[in-house]
Design goal:
2 copies of one chain form a homodimer.
Chain A lengths: L6 E5 L2 E6 L17 E4 L1 E6 L19 H15 L3 H14 L2 E9 L7 H12 L5 E7 L10 H11 L3 E5 L8 H15 L2 E6 L3 H18 L5 E5 L8 H13 L2 E4 L11 H6 L4 E2 L17 H12 L4 H10 L2 H6 L15 E4 L4 H7 L3 E6 L2 E5 L2 E2 L2
Parallel strand pairs in A: 4-5, 5-6, 6-7, 7-8, 8-9, 9-10, 10-11
Antiparallel strand pairs in A: 1-2, 3-12, 12-13, 13-14, 14-15
Chain lengths: ~375, ~375
């Protein structure tokens, strides 16, 4: 069993009471959960809403294997296709909703060619969906920062215009100047009180050294609890001694780690990170875009992949994988109102299954998705 | 597109004609495929039908991490639970059917404690399902061969009583006597003209050296085309030079490689194996058993996992993953009557999707599953 059977009373979009045998007050809609499992809604905390081909005809993958190959291939496709980012972002967000996601963090490409077009598109989609879900925006310099003069100003502008976080990408691998990129990114964050969430694909000691530099800047600027490192393959590559010290730094500076359970890159050691008190969270990453043909925007499937890639088999560890797509994501997003407790926002997923572990391995359809007390999807269909 | 639209005429369980605009002959049932994609049926060529908990209440995973831990934990659970292997085998086979599988190879535990009980159970399930699907049985010494005196006689007996293949497990890691186990296993195969399919989890050079020993015995006994190595993590661990030589040995001796796309062990290099002409196939491996809580017996999902773990993104490579769960499996099973061509057995899966690549990443429900011309499942429900 996932927990004892209970009724949940929702008022004004929040949980008013959880108890067995609550009488339905007049004027309140009663839903019979049919002994299904009620979970806190999913948090997809690493998306790329602006660049998806979702809803477009199948596009065979073309890019070469390196990060640089993919950036250049994407730039070419973007020029050819001219897909409207607001429409694409809304399409993918709606897919996430029917799979149970209520809170999203999305990285949005900003560079000197794109300017703020993708950012403005995602801002428009966020506005259209504001009664259904929340979307946090990371101003993401996909093409680099210091190697692309003019980018820093655009990032600063996006943060002033509504992006909650500033992003980064392989300060060493892409910009060839780790300190340079990190000084710009953390500088903007410090000035505006924004968060930081940096893509770090750089592996081994090259990646590890950049985590140390991020920890230094987090401490210096008082940004503890507002910084995340996405991917962090390097944590799955360094030796045990180096890993131990890195994990201490992450815990001390309350830096969170995002893993999308990469299929063919090293996984950060999720169990060890959790045991040390580091917030672990997850996201769909790219879904049907120039980077990958994979993805369904289903965070229950993502929990399965996290567990599968980490060798998690016991119930405790399957629950840890589920935690990364629920509470871990909410913690990374800084949502104090998240959870299954009185006073929390009424954000639920309801699914039929035997236990929480069984939900992770079987990934049944979502019977109901509820956001702030409003049913936004039912039986795999949008209710918006 | 997966291919041009066509009609398929089935007579006496075989494909009689493939063409556009075939008139439905009198007395023949016509099915409107509604522009869905017709695939050859799936081949799940590495199952453990006898040991699944499928259909039982959720059982939290308990075993320790080593192969030995899992064998001992399974033995304990088996004594406690006393699940009837024929019932369990049939349950899981029926789940495989609704996901599109028509041909199965299953390893069946045989040791001095179990005797032939599981083997007889799977034989009974095979008999009950014989009009729907084919099941090849591997007599599998789960607990070792030379370290468990008496096992060899039981294996020999199973092969005489209906097992098409003889199995093995980590000749070095479990028996501590690689030549000893392999001599017994290949000896029985040679005497009866049976096939061989050996579980090899042993990693690195320890695993690689056993592949060389299997190749020697395959050549000596004239078993080329009848031998498979399952898992073969070692092929993803040795250096490039050693790998090249191993792949040559596999190709020369027509030894097939089975990978179930392990989440946390090294993957054999599927692309390189295929390019060298080695048959690559796949299977569900354990599904909700004492070894793992994972698994759905869905070979389209398995194709996704193979691609995801191998970094396959282009259409060509997504098709290669699909090939492992269709033609590759049929080749390993020695089925000359398999395929989408006139004269082949009419074994199909029909699913709605845009292209073959899209089927792999999206894994839609199976609209129809057809075995030798008979509809055995429809829209995710059994039609048996």
């Amino acid at each position: 069993m996932a927990g004892a059977a209970a009724d949940v009373l929702v008022k004004d979009g929040h949980i008013a009471r959880i108890a067995s045998g609550i009488e339905s007050p007049p004027g309140i809609t009663a839903i019979d959960g049919q002994a299904a499992i009620l979970l806190p809604a999913f948090v997809d905390a690493h998306m790329h809403l602006d660049k998806t081909f979702w809803g477009q005809p199948w596009r065979p993958h073309q890019a070469g294997p390196s990060v640089r190959d993919r950036i250049e291939n994407e730039r070419r496709l973007r020029r050819e296709l001219r897909l409207p980012p607001d429409v694409q972002a809304e399409r993918l967000a709606r897919q996430a909703i029917i799979r149970g996601t209520v809170h999203i963090r999305t990285h949005v490409d900003i560079d000197t060619e794109i300017g703020l077009e993708n950012f403005e598109g995602v801002m428009a989609a966020r506005s259209r969906l504001r009664d259904a879900i929340t979307i946090q925006i990371v101003a993401f310099p996909q093409s680099g920062v210091v190697s692309r003069p003019g980018t820093a100003d655009l990032l600063d502008r996006a943060v002033r215009d509504g992006a909650e976080l500033i992003g980064g990408i392989d300060p060493a691998g892409i910009d060839g100047d780790a300190a340079g990129q990190l000084d710009v990114v953390f500088g903007i964050a410090g000035r505006h009180g924004a968060g930081v969430d940096i893509h770090l694909h750089d592996g081994g000691e090259v990646g590890a050294s950049q985590i140390r530099m991020m920890a230094d800047r987090t401490r210096a600027l008082g940004l503890a609890g507002k910084v995340a490192v996405s991917h962090a393959f390097c944590l799955g590559m360094v030796d045990d001694l180096a890993l131990g010290k890195l994990i201490e730094l992450l815990a001390e500076n309350r830096i969170a780690i995002m893993s999308a359970a990469p299929g063919d890159r090293p996984m950060p050691p999720l169990r060890r990170l959790r045991d040390a008190g580091v917030t672990v969270f997850s996201g769909s990453d790219g879904v049907r875009d120039a980077w990958t043909p994979f993805g369904t925007a289903d965070m229950l499937e993502r929990a399965m992949l996290l567990a599968y890639r980490s060798g998690f088999r016991t119930d405790d560890l399957l629950h840890a994988a589920l935690d990364a797509v629920t509470r871990g994501g909410a913690a990374a997003l800084g949502r104090a109102d998240y959870g299954l407790a009185v006073g929390c926002r009424a954000d639920f997923v309801v699914a039929h299954g035997e236990t929480l572990g069984e939900l992770v391995v079987a990934r049944p359809p979502r019977a109901w998705v509820v956001s702030a007390g409003r049913i936004i999807a039912r039986d795999g269909h949008s209710a918006l």
